[in-house]
Amino acid sequence: MPTVPRLHLFEFIDQAWFPRALRDLTTDYLHTVSNRLGLFDGATAVLARGLRSGHTRELLDLGSGGRGPLPRLRRLLAEQEDLEARVLLSDKYPNAEAAARASAEDVTYVDRSVDALRVPADLRGMRTLFNTLHHFRPEEVRAVLSDAMARGVPIAAFESVRRSPAGLFSMLWVPLLVWLFTPWVRPLTPLRLVLTYVIPVAPLLIAWDGAVSALRIHSPEELRELTATLPSPDYVWEVGEVKAPGKPPVSYVLGLPTRAA
Questions:
Q1: pLDDT digits (tens, 9 = 90+) for 54-73
Q2: Integer Cα distance of 67 and 49 in angstroms
Q3: Cis (ω within 30 of 0) for the bond into 2?
Q4: Domains of the chain, first to last
Q5: How many C-beta atoms lie closer than 10 Å to residue 65's C-beta?
Q6: Is the Cβ–Cβ distance between 166 and 2 less than 8 Å?
Q7: Could you give the 3-state DSSP secondary structure of residue 156?
Q8: How far apart are alpha carbons 161 and 184 in whole angstroms?
Q9: Mean pLDDT over the full length of the chain
């Protein structure tokens, strides 16, 4: 069991009142880091299993923020798994600039608010969440997973952070990483530069939310206990860890329909 208790503390990015400009500082940075470092490359094989099990070629990402890793993973699915997937990105607080950039990558960003707890019926396909599940309390995680099961669609949620002393310690390096990666963030606006290098708003905000995220992570043991309360003869659950060569491990929970809905 994890040596750090789960604490559902305050995270700025969760708040409806949080200014859009500051929210975009965070989500655009997170997209840049995950994309340039390939943090979720190991998720490719898991996604392929879900797509094949659900007899679908569509990925519906929930909590996409600044686009996340799916545009990159879409290319890896084609190269490594011979799967041509259509990607739909969505978020409760859509990032308009990220939506415009997504279209250049042949990816669609849904322009309306999509709450992972209430996914509209017209949005089908395999559901994915990348560094998003920790935003929900255990009973909400159960609702997110059980809704996918009830709809008969696959779902996969991935987390790149661990709820451990090492995971918390790693957050001390976040301000330095923000300073290092900001030149690659797009759009690189004067406001972003000022709030990163002149007034360190972005480094401090991202470091705080990162530390809180590490405390909110649902451990594999907790996810196994939770999915055990979701029995179904037509659906199976799997909790595990994947690791691409040269990348840190990524934990996941995967739900698979055992026959077409």
A1: 999 999 999 999 999 999 99
A2: 22
A3: no
A4: 12-257 (3.40.50.150)
A5: 26
A6: no
A7: strand
A8: 22
A9: 94
Coil/strand/helix, residue 168: helix
Tell me the three state secondary structure of residue 87: strand
Crossing angle of helices 20-37/201-216, nearest 10°? 70
Q: What's the one-letter identity of residue 139?
A: E
Taking Cα atoms as reference points, which of 145, 127, 153 lies closest to residue 227?
A: 145
C-alpha torsion sign, points 30, 71, 146, 258 = negative
Radius of gyration from C-alpha coordinates of the chain: 18
DSSP string, 197-233: IIS-HHHHHHHHHHHHHHHHPPPHHHHHHHHTT---T
Q: Report whether 130 contacts 40 (CB < 8 A).
A: yes
At 38, list the tokens.
């390939």
- As to burial, measured by CB atoms within 10 angstroms (0-12 exposed, 13-18 middle, 19+ buried), residue 254 is buried
Give 243: exposed, middle or buried? Use CB within 10 Å, 0-12, 13-18, 19+: exposed
Strands (E) located in 101-234 = 108-109, 126-130, 155-159
Give 104: exposed, middle or buried? Use CB within 10 Å, 0-12, 13-18, 19+: exposed
Q: Which of 63, 9, 6, 4 is nearest to 212 (CA)?
A: 9
Using DSSP's 3-state secondary structure scheme, residue 237 falls into strand
Over residues 70-102, the pLDDT tens digits come to 999 999 999 999 999 999 999 999 998 888 888
Nearest CA among 167, 147, 172, 146 for reference residue 218: 167
Look up residue 37 and give its two tokens: 């470092």
